[in-house]
């Protein structure tokens, strides 16, 4: 039964992701003057997320704190990272944002297409020049009123204890004087099978949007205090 269910999940998931990519591509290239075209393309990921979460019998997701989001505000969004499923469920916020993704994700069928068609910011790991380019592009999006999403651990955490947070997102929030929006993701570590393709464990995921933090009172040298404040808030939720 698990083998059959897993086959169906992967088939349906691939079809849904392909459909979201094709819908996004159509909206991006069709020669019709859509208002807010980029937002319409991005919004295809909302139903993509709803479908993947709703159709997987091994996933149960609780979403909290959506009232903390002002959709007219531009945020630096910071989330902890447990699984590739994190980016799927964070679209449950229905926020318009760009996120910093590893360039190698472009190789994933249709997922890479969604990254490309939505003009997300791509990072080449191990290249210092790429890191500088990423933060320059991220600042550009913020100045155009587009929120930026960062996973400051840099990679997925292997335990409930979060890895150390990198500094870039916090320096950027202070420099650009944008509110920082912490987002906690829990329970997704086993959401996607590792080393295989069969879903064996039912997972209860949790997405919590915390109240935004005003950064206008922070000085550039205060980035570490802001970083530790946010990490502490997210780690407290992980320890519940």
Helix coverage percent of residues? 40-55%
Structural class: alpha/beta
CATH homologous superfamily - what is it? Glycerol-3-phosphate (1)-acyltransferase
Instruction: Please count the beta strands (DSSP E, at least 2 residues each).
Output: 7
The largest β sheet comes out as: 7 strands, mixed
CATH topology: Glycerol-3-phosphate (1)-acyltransferase
Proportion in β-strands? 15-25%
C-alpha Rg (nearest Å): 18 Å
| Main CATH class | Alpha Beta
Order of H and E elements: HHEEHEHEHEHEEH
Please tell me the CATH architecture by its name: 3-Layer(aba) Sandwich
Which helices and strands occur, and which strands form pairs?
Layout: H1 2-29, H2 37-55, E1 59-64, E2 76-79, H3 85-90, E3 97-102, H4 111-117, E4 121-123, H5 128-143, E5 147-150, H6 168-176, E6 180-186, E7 203-209, H7 223-238
Parallel strand pairs: 1-7, 2-5, 2-6, 3-4, 3-5
Antiparallel strand pairs: 6-7
């Amino acid at each position: 039964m698990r083998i059959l269910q897993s086959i169906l999940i992967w088939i349906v998931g691939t079809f849904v992701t392909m459909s979201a990519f094709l819908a996004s591509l159509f909206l991006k290239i069709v020669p019709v003057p859509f208002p807010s075209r980029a937002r319409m393309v991005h919004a295809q990921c909302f139903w993509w997320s709803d479908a993947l979460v709703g159709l997987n019998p091994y996933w149960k997701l609780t979403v909290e704190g959506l009232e903390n989001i002002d959709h007219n505000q531009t945020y630096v969004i910071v989330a902890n990272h447990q699984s590739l499923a994190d980016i799927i469920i964070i679209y449950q916020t229905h926020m318009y944002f760009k996120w910093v993704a590893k360039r190698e994700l472009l190789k994933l069928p249709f997922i890479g297409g969604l990254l490309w068609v939505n003009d997300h910011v791509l990072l080449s790991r191990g290249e210092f020049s790429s890191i500088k380019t990423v933060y320059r592009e991220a600042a550009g999006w913020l100045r155009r009123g587009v929120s930026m999403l960062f996973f400051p651990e840099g990679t997925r955490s292997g335990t409930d204890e979060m890895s150390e947070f990198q500094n870039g997102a916090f320096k950027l929030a202070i420099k650009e004087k944008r509110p920082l929006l912490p987002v906690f993701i829990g329970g997704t570590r086993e959401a996607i099978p590792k080393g295989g393709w069969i879903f064996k464990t039912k997972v209860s995921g949790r997405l919590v949007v915390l109240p935004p933090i005003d950064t206008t009172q922070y000085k550039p040298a205060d980035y570490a205090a802001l970083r530790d404040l946010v990490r502490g808030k997210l780690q407290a939720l992980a320890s519940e």
